[in-house]
Design a protein that fits this description.
Layout: H1 12-66, H2 70-88, H3 98-116, E1 119-121, E2 134-140, E3 147-152, E4 155-157, E5 160-163, E6 165-170, H4 180-189
Parallel strand pairs: 2-6
Antiparallel strand pairs: 1-4, 3-6, 4-5
Helix pairs in contact: 2-3
């Protein structure tokens, strides 16, 4: 007779043990999945933060490059102002001399170089007063809120004001008090003095 292997019946405890081990393994698997998902999300956030940092650093580097010459430009502006004043106050006897024309050419070349570097003059006379671009030095009779005159030119470098324009601003027209003779004259003519 051949010995048949004995069938070993598993005790009910062993089945419960396997079920509990499977449940434990499934629970551990779920925890690991949650942890890996958390790690993946953290990694994505870190990657996005790093991309934003790189963009911000590139933008700052670009800004620094664009505005690196501000100090030099600010030192050149008074020289250009002096050249303009000198050329505008020339006596008639000097106008047309070659050396005077040469100085005018130098002034125009300096202006052209500044323009190629992004420097532009701020418009003033006839414009509405804007404290972002203009610095009011004097108020005179004239259209209220309008720039009447320019005392010193203002400049922008790209979109940034590097020197505001010094201007004269209108404060409106003051009505003079009428004296007694004018009032009597208006009464006599029936107020049709115009």
């Amino acid at each position: 007779m051949v010995d048949e292997p004995e069938k070993v019946e598993e005790a009910p405890e062993a089945g419960v043990e396997k079920v509990s081990q499977v449940e434990l393994l499934q629970k551990a698997l779920e925890e690991e999945k949650a942890r890996s998902e958390r790690y993946l999300n953290n990694w994505r956030r870190a990657e996005a933060d790093f991309d934003n940092y790189k963009k911000r650093a590139d933008q700052e580097r670009s800004e620094n490059t664009r505005f690196a010459n501000v100090a030099l430009i600010l030192n050149l502006l008074p020289i250009i102002d002096d050249l303009e004043r000198a050329l505008s106050s020339l006596p008639a006897s000097l106008v047309g001399l070659t050396w005077v024309d040469g100085i005018g050419l130098i002034e125009r070349k300096m202006q052209a170089i500044l323009e190629t570097k992004g420097v532009t003059q701020i418009k003033t006379v006839g414009e509405q007063f804007d404290p972002a671009f203009h610095e009011a030095v004097v108020q005179v009779e004239g259209e209220e809120g309008k720039v009447i005159g320019e005392l010193q030119k203002g400049y922008r470098l790209y979109d940034r004001v590097i020197r505001p324009a010094l201007v004269t601003v209108g404060k409106g027209v003051e009505k003079k008090p009428k004296d007694e003779k004018e009032e009597q004259s208006e009464k006599d003519t029936g107020g049709a003095g115009d």
